[in-house]
Amino acid sequence: MTQRTACSSQEFVDFRWQKTNYSLFFENTEIEALAEEFGSMIDRCNQFFEDNLDWWFEPLSSRNNFISPLFHHFICFHICLKLADEGNTPSKCITDSNAMHKGLLHLKKSGVWQGEIKHVRKRSLISLLCKRLTKVCLTIAHMLLPFLILRIIKRSRAQMPTEPMTILDTFMLPGHEKRNRYYDGILDKLTEKEKLSVRLVPSFYGYSLKQYYPSLSKLRHQEESFLFKEDFLFFSDYINAFAHSLRVFKLRPPAMRVKHFDIGAQIEEELRLFGGLLDATLGFLNFSFAKRLSKKGIQLVKAVDWHENQGQDRGWNYGLHKFYPQVMTVGYSPVSLSQWHLSASPLASERKKGILPRTIKVPSSYLIAIKKKNDPGLVAETTGAFRFTTVSKPHLRKNNPVRVLVPLPLEDNLSSHLCNEARKLASQSNEKLVLTFKLHPASSPEHKDKLKSDGKQDVSEFWTMRTFHEELEEADAVIGSWTSALLEAAASGVAVGILQSPDGLYHNPIPDEAAKGRQILLDFLGSFDLLLKISKERASSPNPKKHLDILEQPTRPAALELLGL
Q1: Is 2 part of any domain?
Q2: Cα angle, residue 509 at apex, residues 505 and 514 outer, rounded to 5°
Q3: Claim to verify: residue 437 and residue 520 sit in the same structural domain
């Protein structure tokens, strides 16, 4: 439980996204209540935009607060009301949202808010427009390049599938063309003959413009393993997807107010910032892909979505339900997210719209309750933890110096924060230790230069190019936030600590029920020494395998069931 700190009326409050510490104002239970209220508000919008796919494919609709700042602003509105009710308004506050700024001015005009209000624009209006135009152009380039290149590197007619098959939605990252990092654990359970009935459908992520051609050339030689969306889509499908950036300007949410604040204005502002452009574009392309497959007469046995409840997932499932109504859709959801990642728990309105898979498969029974939190009617079942290849045995090491592994998320701001927090805690430790930082697989190698230590703190650190699984085998402890890698570490018997995020919350991917009785998690990482004490106790445990039942075993029968073979 986070402890709330009283705010003096003289304090400065920063309402910019990823700058506000919610725990200074609310207890965890209060934030949970706000999350429920927020879900009801989005439910209302879902009903209002029932027939509008431009809304359904936006991060706003899925409550993806990893991309969308709407929930942040929603909490900030309530912070304002709380401080005003207590007569404790700060002398100054700052925001980078125009809608938030207008709401605060209205509050001040009505006499409720007394402090100074400062609106900070990151860029001038001209610069902002240029940024938006650049974002649209880059999105178009990254979508069209694979389409054009695969037209040049033509598919062999012999590779056109003629037998019923199972398709798997996946991502392709630079350097992972030979082995798919998302489904290795499943495909390794199949015979070579069985693999012929399964096709991976990749979306390309993290590529520079110059990386597409050599990478796609390599993939063309593995056509027995892949089904490329680009081979079926028409140029008109891309035009329709790109037109989303124009259609969102027509979206007008219903009138919604939180007392003095117009939430509808906040929604409109976010839609016009193109924060969900890439996600929505992929959603429309996935929808069109299902349509083109159907018209081509491609027979499907099953369709498996790498499910994170994003716009691209919604387009995939909605398209399949419309054009393949008899085909079973499955959401493979091995990524464990914290309770504060709101999109991880779908709403009933999402299921009723048909944008969710008919069944969601998770690698742990402890995750079912999280999936069904907002919708008891959701079908959620367990399957093998195929993504997590290191859970078959405990990795208990005694290193000198102690090795602490820090897996980083993709987002720049959060990665920077976690690096600094890890270094701060390491500098306070009585143990001789080394921090091993591991970049997200989709991060560019250049990202490391931005995160390296400035040398002001006397902390030994190492930046690894090895896989997380390789580093985990030699780690004494793992610390981090947001990432499901922490769940894998816990299931492997490695001591895990959760670092506080900039918003003051602990984005813990390990369900509370899974942590009970195992001593695998520090709810609050006050010092490394306490974490390392747990690590040493773990190494001498008479029964280290007791941790491994957090995740389901990745068996061959489970793989065959998931794939419909």
Answers
A1: no
A2: 120
A3: yes
Q: In whole angstroms, give the CA distance from residue 443 to residue 221.
A: 26
pLDDT of residue 230 exceeding 90: yes
Per the structure block, which two tokens stand in for 537? 């106790």
Q: What is the CA radius of gyration of the chain?
A: 24
8 A C-beta contact, residue 434 and residue 401: yes
Q: Vertex 207, ends 203 and 208: CA angle to 5°?
A: 145
Q: Would you state the structure tokens that stand for residue 81, as one six-digit string?
A: 């009301």
3 state SS of 552: coil
> Is residue 405 within 8 Å of residue 475, measured between CB atoms?
yes
**In which residue are the tokens 């089904």 written?**
227
User: Whole-model pTM?
Assistant: 0.88
Residues 204 and 110 in one domain: no
Q: Is 274 left (phi over 0), alpha (psi -120 to 50) or beta?
A: left
DSSP letter, residue 437: E
The secondary structure element, H or E, covering residue 122 is none
Domains held by the chain: number = 3
Which CA distances in Å does 72 have to 20, 31, 184, 303, 373?
8, 11, 36, 34, 21
Q: Tokens 């995750």 belong to which residue?
A: 367
- What phi, psi does 359 have (nearest 5°)? -135, 140
Position 70 pLDDT exceeds 70: yes
Cα–Cα nearest to 335, from 193, 199, 442, 485: 485
| Dihedral (CA of 346, 314, 336, 190) sign | positive
The pLDDT, as a whole number, for residue 323 is 97
Residue 276 and residue 58 in contact, taking contact as beta carbons nearer than 8 Å:
yes
pLDDT at 428 over 90: no
Cα 89 from Cα 110, distance rounded (Å):
14
DSSP state of 506: -
Is omega for the bond preceding 441 within 30 degrees of 0, making it cis? no
Mind giving me the DSSP string for 259-310? Answer: TTEEHHHHHHHHHTTTTTHHHHHHHHHHHHHHHHHHHHT--EEEEEEE-S--
* 425 part of a folded domain: yes
Greater model confidence, 402 or 234: 234
Q: How far is CA 55 from the centre of its chain?
A: 19
**3-state DSSP assignment of residue 368:** helix
Domain that holds residue 298: 133-250+275-382
